[in-house]
């Protein structure tokens, strides 16, 4: 298995490149439109063929590159079936493994941050999207988010995984790359140390977070699998500009 963790600095997003050494097929998990050229260069450098993009959910802070990658190199678009996006090729469902060459992903339905959120288990890796972050979790106050659902997604589905499973989130704002299930159970300030549902409700109720500045453009664009709006204000243009040299994690 070939594995790369790639970092996009505008939205602090991690994209994950996984390649099958037997077939040369690759998948990009949560790719960002800003980093399209960077990601393709990495795929080509490794001698791989991009077969699929795989998003964990409809993002509110960046535009996915799924559609542009499909148009550019013919990769197929995989995303949660529950969101009923007309632009996808494969609808992901819990209990139905997602196969790319010899790579097998086990989808976990983990709603709460959004109502259509999925995490993906691959061997001892779990790509948790925004459901479980390093020492945190995604917010639950938009896109049909639900605090109780997120609590149960994490405690009933993610925290029951083996302690040594590696947690790879969709974002980190402090340049941390990876955690483990054990670490998050032990020290996550929102969900760890046996936090009760009522404690979690209280924490999330008092976050006092600002309205996401890109959400009104990102969500409609991502419901089309990655379309940058024509009316994007100048101060948000960086969210859709392609940056060949965006950082690598």
Secondary structure: elements and pairs:
Elements: E1 2-8, E2 13-19, E3 25-29, H1 36-45, E4 49-54, H2 66-73, E5 76-80, E6 90-92, E7 98-100, E8 103-109, E9 118-122, E10 125-129, H3 147-158, E11 166-169, E12 179-180, H4 181-187, H5 197-205, H6 215-222
Parallel strand pairs: 3-4, 4-5, 5-6, 10-11
Antiparallel strand pairs: 1-2, 2-3, 7-8, 8-9, 9-10, 11-12
Walk me through what this model shows.
The protein is α/β, with parallel strands linked by helices and 249 residues long. It has one domain (2-210): 4-Layer Sandwich (Metallo-beta-lactamase, Chain A), CATH 3.60.15. The protein contains six helices and twelve strands. The chain has a six-stranded mixed β-sheet, covered by helices on one side. A six-stranded mixed β-sheet has the order 7-8-9-10-11-12. Strand 9 and strand 10 form a beta hairpin. Helix 3 packs across helix 5 (197-205). This is MBL fold metallo-hydrolase.
Keywords, please?
single chain, 249 residues, alpha/beta, Metallo-beta-lactamase, Chain A, 6-stranded mixed beta sheet
């Amino acid at each position: 298995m070939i594995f790369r963790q790639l970092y996009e600095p505008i939205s602090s997003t991690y994209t994950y490149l996984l390649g099958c050494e037997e077939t040369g097929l690759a998948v990009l998990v949560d790719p960002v439109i800003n980093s399209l050229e960077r990601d393709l260069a990495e795929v080509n450098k490794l001698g791989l063929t991009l077969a699929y993009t795989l998003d964990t959910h409809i993002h509110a802070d960046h535009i996915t590159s799924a559609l542009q990658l499909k148009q550019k190199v013919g990769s197929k678009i995989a995303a949660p079936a529950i969101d009923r996006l007309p632009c996808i090729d494969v609808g992901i469902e819990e209990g139905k493994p997602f196969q790319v060459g010899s790579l097998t992903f086990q989808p976990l339905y983990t709603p709460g941050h959004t109502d259509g959120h999925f995490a993906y288990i691959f061997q001892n890796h779990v790509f948790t999207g925004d459901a479980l972050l390093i020492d945190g979790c995604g917010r639950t106050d938009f896109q049909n988010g639900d605090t109780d659902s997120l609590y149960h997604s994490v405690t009933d589905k993610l925290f029951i995984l083996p302690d040594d499973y590696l947690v790879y989130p969709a974002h980190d704002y402090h340049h941390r790359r990876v955690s483990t299930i054990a670490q998050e159970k032990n020290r996550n300030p929102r969900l760890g140390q046996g936090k009760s549902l009522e404690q979690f409700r209280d924490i999330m109720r008092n976050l006092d977070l600002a309205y996401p500045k890109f959400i009104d453009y990102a969500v409609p664009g991502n419901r089309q699998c990655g379309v940058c709006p024509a009316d994007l204000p100048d101060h948000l243009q960086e969210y859709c500009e392609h940056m060949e040299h965006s950082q690598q994690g």
